[in-house]
């Protein structure tokens, strides 16, 4: 996930000429402050009503849809190849351990992140050297302003602030400090919530967005103002949901009860300590499929539980397949 300002810039103004004024960015919706890990599936995990969650967790949502178009025979064959790949990426001992299964699910979980970076890469790596220098990103996003003066842009101060903010994040993502990002470093810049080392910069950016009085904390009114702004002069009482948020702030956000949020409390709010989804799902699949209870899965055990791992609806299979899936 990009910084909210940069998302807004790219979403509305990508391709605009630098000489065309860009309006100031809008703050994000309140709910967008919270950054969970990438979900394994968009559907509830309820095996009593089907295995769609498990399919998407194991394959990824796009590949799960593709498998729904395969015949059961082809689906099983491709599952077998996946099992071989999972084992080969681990110790290659002929069985799949919980750790190997977790690694595969994490790989699947992050596929959409990698693909989004791949799609954007050419826009930023303008010299084609396989890396993105800060200057390349700056020029592609903000234009070629001498000294970043933004003299012909409305609210130039906001854009200087945005530029400085993105440069700071780029520096944190750039582990070797050369201001030239590898693909992994650039992924950390674009999707900081997926990288533990980017935690502090996410917290700092959130504090800067909300801390209007500059005291280094988020007061309850600053917290509320991020999601609710009554019309000037309005006399009506706050909506019930706003009063509920004030209670949430007091009872759940302000952990030490001192009346405001410090950096640690902001981090606990916007980067909640989620449970380890790949760990939970890997052990669920292992528990349900490990017929001899040896704590690992043979290829046959996985194939015997084909319906849980990849199951196919086998409707119109083959008709919609337009690309190879050997990368599985």
UniProtKB/TrEMBL annotation:
Function: Probable molecular chaperone assisting protein biosynthesis and transport in the endoplasmic reticulum. Required for the proper biosynthesis and transport of pulmonary surfactant-associated protein A/SP-A, pulmonary surfactant-associated protein D/SP-D and the lipid transporter ABCA3. By regulating both the proper expression and the degradation through the endoplasmic reticulum-associated protein degradation pathway of these proteins plays a crucial role in pulmonary surfactant homeostasis. Has an anti-fibrotic activity by negatively regulating the secretion of type I and type III collagens.
GO MF terms, alphabetically ordered: calcium ion binding
Principal location listed in the UniProt entry: endoplasmic reticulum
Cell wall biogenesis/degradation as UniProt keyword: no
UniProt similarity note: Belongs to the CREC family.
Cleaved signal peptide residues: 1-21
EF-hand domain residues: 112-147, 161-196, 198-233
Protein name: Reticulocalbin-3
Species: Ornithorhynchus anatinus
């Amino acid at each position: 996930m990009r910084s909210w300002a940069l998302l807004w810039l790219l979403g509305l103004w990508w391709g605009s000429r630098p000489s065309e004024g860009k309006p100031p960015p809008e703050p994000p919706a309140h709910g967008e402050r919270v950054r969970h890990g990438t979900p394994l599936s968009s559907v509830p995990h309820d095996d009593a009503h089907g295995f769609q969650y498990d399919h998407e967790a194991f394959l990824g949502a796009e590949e799960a849809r593709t498998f729904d178009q395969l015949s059961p025979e082809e689906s099983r064959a491709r599952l077998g190849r996946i099992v071989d790949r999972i084992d080969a990426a681990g110790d290659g001992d002929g069985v799949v351990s919980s750790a190997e299964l977790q690694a595969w699910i994490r790989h699947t979980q992050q596929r959409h992140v990698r693909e989004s970076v791949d799609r954007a890469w050419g826009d930023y790596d303008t010299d084609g050297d396989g890396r993105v220098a800060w200057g390349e990103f700056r020029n592609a996003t903000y234009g070629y302003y001498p000294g970043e003066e933004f003299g012909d842009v409305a609210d130039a101060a906001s854009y200087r602030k945005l530029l400085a903010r993105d440069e700071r994040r780029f520096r944190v993502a750039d582990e070797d400090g050369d201001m030239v990002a590898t693909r992994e470093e650039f992924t950390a810049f674009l999707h900081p919530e997926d990288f533990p080392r980017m935690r502090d910069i996410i917290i700092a950016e959130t504090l800067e967005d909300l801390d209007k009085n500059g005291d280094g904390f988020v007061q309850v009114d600053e917290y509320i103002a991020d999601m609710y702004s009554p019309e000037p002069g309005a006399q009506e009482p706050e909506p019930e949901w706003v009063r509920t948020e004030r209670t949430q702030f007091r009872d759940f956000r302000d952990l030490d009860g001192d009346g405001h949020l410090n950096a640690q409390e902001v981090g606990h709010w916007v980067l909640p300590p989620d449970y380890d989804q790949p760990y939970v799902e890997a052990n669920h699949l292992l528990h349900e499929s490990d017929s001899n209870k040896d704590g690992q899965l043979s290829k046959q055990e996985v194939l015997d539980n084909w319906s849980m791992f990849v199951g196919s609806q086998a409707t119109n299979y083959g008709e919609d397949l337009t690309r190879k899936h050997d990368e599985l």
